[in-house]
Amino acid sequence: MEDERLDAVILGASGFTGKYVVRYFLNHLDRDGGGQRIKIGIAGRSRNKVAEALRWAAAPSLPPANIPIIEADVTSPPSLAALCRRTRLVLNCVGPYRRYGEPVVSACVEGGVDYLDISGEPEFMEKMEATYHQKAVETGSLVISACGYDSIPAELGVIFHSRQWKPPSVPHSVDSYLLLESDKRIAGNIGTFESAVLGLSNAHELQKLRRSRPRRAKPQIPGPPARKAKLIEHISSIGLWALKLPSSDAIVVRRTQTFLAEDPHGLPGVNENPDFAEKRKNFWSEVKPLHYGVYMGCKSLLMVAGLIFLGLNMALLCSFEWGRSLLLKYPEIFTLGVFKKTGPTEEEIKSATFKMTFIGHGFSNESRLLQQKSKPDMEIVTRISGPEIGYVTTPITLVQCALILIDQRHSLPKGGVLPPGIVFGPTDLQERLEKNGISFEVC
Q1: How many angstroms separate the CA atoms of 37 and 66, rounded?
Q2: With contact defined as beta carbons under 8 Å apart, do 84 and 41 qualify?
């Protein structure tokens, strides 16, 4: 029926990442424990392009006949309002979010519809929180960004790591080291690159936004200050050179820790049962605040030099309008093939994997924190591993978050603009990811 409300709609289904999200979701429409199948729709500006993406995603089978195709344009508020009247949840794959995200968030909040995206853009996420959080609480709309590779592995990785510190030990800091591996050279697509260019070009806007907002409670991390990060260092225990990165992961993790500082037991579900409430409180009692740093792992100094050259080149060109134009017009030239307009091939995607190693330092006994000039005397190493980050891991994490929202909505907060960790931490998201090829281990 045309007026039957859908469980979820994928907006931007014909985009490079969107079509991979559609393909993954088509294989996960059966509910746990049986029952009625999940009802999804797919949406975009062009009905023909969205239909073509559905055929691609369903191949070699024929596309399901019961999946509606909805015309919706992020520049048309009426079309977004109409979209929100047809669904309980929107998965927004239309980026860059700085340019195209806010109208979708606004429509979802106004309509009391839940919202997920795969943004890794700090200014967008913090602006949405500042602008729409209170209204989202009132209308019962959960707005959760960073549900792709940015930043589910970081959020769950830090939480998983923190829970390995059993009393009387206590964590103090953890650094993550990302290693991307592939038999082939893999390139990112132009949408991801455009988001990076816009972020570099408007970095001052994020600082301006933060200065305009009231200060919130910061997590209290006992012990000495965080160690001063080095730009480049060799981590002998994992055999990698590490390059310090400006990363949305650290910002998202910090937002979750801020919410925990205000509500140490986490956020109650809108209609959670007593068993889940007890589980949530016990879960968060095992998660301690810690300093978090993000690094790119490289197997050689030559790779480090290449990344530094790429970063400096982009930072310089992003300072000028003509430079930004050149970057976006010729991404393959100015990034030495790291990004290209056509994106990666299927073979390149299949060959790629990631490893995210978390090296944490802390104290073997909490009493040592009270001693003057005490230093961490204990180390724990954990790791998350999985397939290619942009078009395999990202659809997995986004859709699994969506499935939890669809089937466990009563156990989640009523509404608000929230980071994924504070919402999905106590759920079964980690177990779901492990069943889908993303592993968590203590090394």
Answers
A1: 11
A2: no
Give the separation between CA 145 and CA 398, rounded to whole angstroms.
10
Structure tokens at 394: 């990202």
What angle do the packed helices 77-84 and 102-111 form, to 10 degrees? 40
Structure tokens belonging to residue 178 = 């990302």
Task: Give CA 100 to chain center in angstroms.
Answer: 17
User: How far, in Å, are 11, 46, 86, 179, 316 from residue 1 at the CA level?
Assistant: 20, 22, 11, 47, 54
DSSP 336-393: TTSB-TT---HHHHHHEEEEEEEEEEEESSGGGGGSTT----EEEEEEEEEE-IIIII
Task: Give the E-state strand segments of 212-333 in sequence order.
Answer: 232-235, 240-244, 291-298
Question: pLDDT tens digits for 183-231?
Answer: 887 777 777 888 888 888 887 787 888 888 887 877 888 888 888 889 9
Looking at residue 353, the DSSP 8-state letter turns out to be E
CA distance 143 to 418: 6
Q: Which two tokens stand for residue 60?
A: 């070699």
Pairing of the two strands 170-182 and 352-363: antiparallel
- DSSP 3-state of 233: strand
8-11 and 114-117 beta bridge pairing: unpaired
Helices and strands (DSSP H and E) totals, the chain: 18, 14
In tens, the pLDDT along 356-370 reads 999 999 999 988 877
The pTM of this model reads: 0.95
- At residue 396, φ and ψ (nearest 5 deg) are -60, -50
| 325 neighbors 334 (Cβ within 8 angstroms) | no
CB 187 within 8 A of CB 352: no
β 69-71/40-44 pair status? parallel
Tell me the pairing of strands 416-418 and 142-144. parallel
How many residues comprise the chain?
Answer: 443
Asked whether 229 and 247 are in contact (CB, 8 A), the reply is no
R_g of the chain computed on alpha carbons: 22
Distance, in Å, from the CA atom of 229 to the CA atom of 259, rounded to the nearest integer, reads 25
426 CA to centre of own chain = 17
CB 192 within 8 A of CB 391: no
